[in-house]
Write a structure and sequence with these properties.
By secondary structure, this protein is α/β, with parallel strands linked by helices. The chain has helices at residues 2-17, 20-36, 53-60, 72-84, 126-139, 156-165, 168-171, 197-205, 227-231, 234-246, and strands spanning 43-47, 64-69, 94-97, 111-116, 140-151, 180-183, 189-192, 209-217, 258-265. The model has no long low-confidence stretch (mean pLDDT 96). Bound molecules: S-adenosylmethionine.
Length: 266
């Protein structure tokens, strides 16, 4: 898995983070996260941190962030961003190569927040997701938060897109038993397990986490692979962003591209 993500690391920001759709989607994640985290900032662990966009944002909010990822090259990009932002080496965020499957081996614990954005947890099958949930619970302080943004098993936007294109297999792409192969670029794809909010919640929370709420990310906003279409139609994207902000209630989460799920540790 590290090799596949290493391969796209140099262009990840250009093809997602800094795109018009990518910015709108992340704005929604930051909006919900800021609402949840009204407390004093503390110690945060970021999982599958990628190029560090959220690690830098959390640091700006006052959090002490340890950002982890399986891909050393993704974290290298994150290090460059930290340096470009003028943050000294020995200040937050700190970066560490770590697979989600090895979370229980991390020495540090007692986190106030564990954060996972944009589908890193979808790289885990059901059993691995269960183990990650248990490790998250073990690493959190009592009362600590876990915020995870997970790719949904059904995405209305995507189904309509494939229907219009006459690509009928695409409509059910996420529903197949076993992993789907999600393309990262023209040459590379990764095994991906899509989860409904209900399944993700049941599997992740185990006995120690309590689910608080779940919000849609990308119900009106289109999936990132439609960027080229929407980059040329900024007004349409503006309207979709507005709809996402004002007309996307929690109950549409199962039909959004991603959902944001929030747990606290008992
Ligand atoms: C879609 S990117 C999301 C990156 C970042 N969270 C963001 O918001 O832009 C998914 C990330 O998950 C990481 N990843 C995939 N499988 C992983 C695993 N088993 N353990 C840790 N990280 C993993 C990838 O290296 C990649 O950086």
């Amino acid at each position: 898995m590290a090799r596949e993500f290493d391969a796209i690391a140099p262009v990840y920001d250009q093809t997602f983070t800094h795109t018009a759709t990518g910015k709108c989607l992340r704005e929604r994640v930051w909006h919900f996260t800021a609402k949840i985290l009204s407390q004093q900032p503390g110690k945060a662990l970021e999982l599958n941190a990628g190029t560090g966009e959220d690690a830098l944002w959390l640091t700006q909010q006052g959090w002490q962030v340890l950002a982890t990822d399986i891909s050393p090259d993704m974290l290298l990009m994150a290090q460059h961003k930290k340096a470009a932002a003028g943050i000294p080496q020995d200040n937050s965020p700190f970066f560490q190569t770590l697979a989600l499957e090895e979370l229980d081996k991390l020495k540090d614990s007692g986190f106030d927040l564990i954060f996972s954005n944009f589908g890193g947890l979808n790289c885990l099958n059901l059993e691995a997701l269960r183990q990650a949930g248990a490790a998250i619970a073990q690493k959190l302080k009592p009362g600590g938060h876990c915020i995870a943004v997970v790719m949904s098993r059904f995405c209305l936007w995507e189904s309509l897109y494939f229907l219009v294109k006459g690509k009928f297999f695409g409509i059910f792409r996420r529903l197949i038993k076993g992993p789907a192969h999600a393309p990262l670029n023209a040459q590379t794809s990764v095994s991906t397990w899509y989860y409904s909010p209900r399944t993700a919640s049941q599997i992740l929370r185990g006995e120690q986490l309590v689910q608080n709420n779940c919000q849609p990310i990308g119900f009106w906003l289109p999936p990132p692979y439609l960027e080229s279409f929407f980059a040329e139609r900024p007004k349409t994207l503006f309207i979709l962003h507005w709809l996402e902000k004002h007309l996307a209630p929690a109950w549409v989460s199962p039909a959004a591209d991603h959902f944001l799920i929030h747990f606290t540790k008992k």
